[in-house]
Design brief:
alpha/beta, 7-stranded mixed beta sheet, binds pyridoxal-5'-phosphate
Length: about 475
């Protein structure tokens, strides 16, 4: 026994020595990529590695699933090291180290006293309905300031179940619902309770970057599938199938999409669900923008053929971003796993905030008015943008437009920086939503109409 343990120790040390050697090689490759201006990710190289490791697993008595997860951890660590070096080099050159550097610059400018038009955030300018504000005060006066059940107070879970069942003509029971700290935390809980280190998540790009960040945070590997403007941001099913392997556990959808405004149509959703069922994958569908749909909208809840986690929120639909309350709907077992994690991290959503959400569900007229306002602004902005040298998809829903700067005049980061410093308008560079979208930028329609039109005028001045 002692001799065997000694051997295990020395094999482990040998593995660490080899990992160190691998990382130092990866670092050297990173330096060359930097010199040649090559991207960090090379999917073809990864594919060949994966194939080779798959072939060796059996010969070495390692299960394929473990072998591939281990390989993914090594690949991700290598990419992290190369990306860090790239960002450092950019910073030293004085450029924007990440798309988010624009926001830091915006704050700097505002501190100097200049006012800006903010189109970079997805935060509706309309506040919560009056009834919601009254409900908060009332809840506090009645002493609703305690811990609650980790999955949420029963009356809120029940009301969400009824509301959603009616809205999507489905049959959700209260114990399939859990109340979370915003849609964002529901996304994290789903990913953290589904993925093991090295597992893969499929994500259609461009998309809200939090999904990939959550996947990385739990040691998983985001595998992105690009979509493009020229094809109306339609997901490519062949690419989806190509990217599925033994490590794939989850497909992530954002519908309507942030930043493109694309709504997935029924046949596409059906195809994705069929693939998920066949390959035994979970579909996480984040539908926080579904209240802002400018054409018929189908929820993933209408396709119960595969395992799903539906995510929604009070933030956008009811102007309640600062309340931090959202919810997830799934099968009872999955809800239990996610609830366990929420209980571990934060016990529950604050009690009085849950009462505010109960009141919000009694405000369909107000939510309908908000949606109408957004729709009007969107059509106004889209017609104003038409005169500019930009190409974009007329959003089917959501709060954003995602234009591409034509003729490669400027990339999204340069445009965002100049628009900010020269014209006082803040937008988000497209690279924040995926590596292939360097010539895009995202603008939200969360400001009053005059501000939006003024912002487009200033864009015109910059683009000529
Ligand atoms: N999901 C998407 C696609 C988002 O864009 C955002 C916020 O911008 C969220 C979720 C977060 O919503 P919440 O405020 O409910 O956490």
């Amino acid at each position: 026994m002692d001799a065997l343990r000694e051997e295990v120790r020395s094999v482990t040390i040998e593995i660490m020595r080899l990992v160190g050697k691998r990382l130092s090689l990866v670092r050297r490759i990173g330096e060359r990529k930097l010199r040649k201006g090559l991207p960090v990710e090379n999917l073809e190289v990864e594919r060949r590695l994966r194939k080779m490791v798959s072939e060796k697993c059996e010969a070495y008595g390692v299960s394929l699933s473990f072998g591939l997860r281990l390989l993914n951890l090594l690949i991700e660590e290598g990419k992290r090291i190369q990306k860090e070096a790239l960002e450092k080099a950019l910073e030293e050159k004085g450029g924007l180290s990440s798309p988010y550097a624009v926001f830091a610059r915006a704050r700097q400018i505002e501190r100097s006293g200049r006012s800006l038009i903010h189109l970079e955030v997805g935060e509706p300018d309309f506040g919560p309905p009056e009834k919601v504000k009254e409900a908060v005060a009332d809840a506090l006066n009645r002493g609703y300031a305690h811990y609650t059940e980790p999955a949420g107070i029963p009356q809120l879970r029940e009301k969400i179940a009824i509301n959603i069942s009616q809205r999507f003509k489905t049959d959700v029971s209260p114990d399939q619902v859990m109340v979370t700290v915003g849609g964002r935390y529901a996304v994290f809980l789903c990913i953290a309770s589904t993925l093991l280190p090295g597992d893969e998540a499929l994500i259609f790009e461009p998309i809200w970057p939090a999904y990939a960040n959550c996947v990385r945070e739990v040691g998983g590997r985001p595998v992105t599938i690009p979509t493009d403007l020229e094809n109306g941001w339609e997901p490519n099913m062949d690419l989806l199938l190509e990217k599925i392997n033994k490590s794939t556990k989850i497909i992530i959808l954002n519908n309507p999409n942030n930043p493109t405004g694309k709504i997935l149509e029924e046949p596409v959703l059906k195809q994705i669900v069929d693939v998920a069922r066949e390959k035994n994958l979970l579909v996480l569908s984040d539908e926080v923008y579904s209240n802002f749909a400018f054409k018929p909208f189908k929820s993933i809840l209408e396709f119960p053929e595969c395992k799903i986690v539906y995510v929604s929120s009070f933030s956008k639909a009811f102007g309640m971003t600062g309340f931090r309350i959202g919810y997830a709907i799934s099968d009872i077992e999955t809800v239990r796993g996610m609830t366990r994690l929420q209980k571990l991290c934060l016990t529950s959503v604050p009690e009085f905030i849950q009462h505010a959400a109960l009141a919000a569900l009694d405000c369909p007229e107000e939510a309908g008015e908000y949606a109408k306002t957004v729709r009007k602004r969107m059509s106004l902005v889209c017609s104003a943008l038409r005169k500019l040298p930009l190409s974009y998809y007329d959003p089917d829903g959501g709060l954003y437009v995602f234009p591409k700067i034509r003729d490669g005049k400027m990339n999204g980061e340069d445009f965002a920086e100049r628009l900010l410093t020269e014209e006082g308008v803040c937008v988000t560079p497209g690279a924040a939503f995926g590596e292939s979208y360097g010539y895009f930028f995202r603008m939200s329609v969360c400001q009053p109409k005059d501000f939006l039109l003024e912002a487009v005028k200033r864009m015109e001045e910059l683009l000529g």
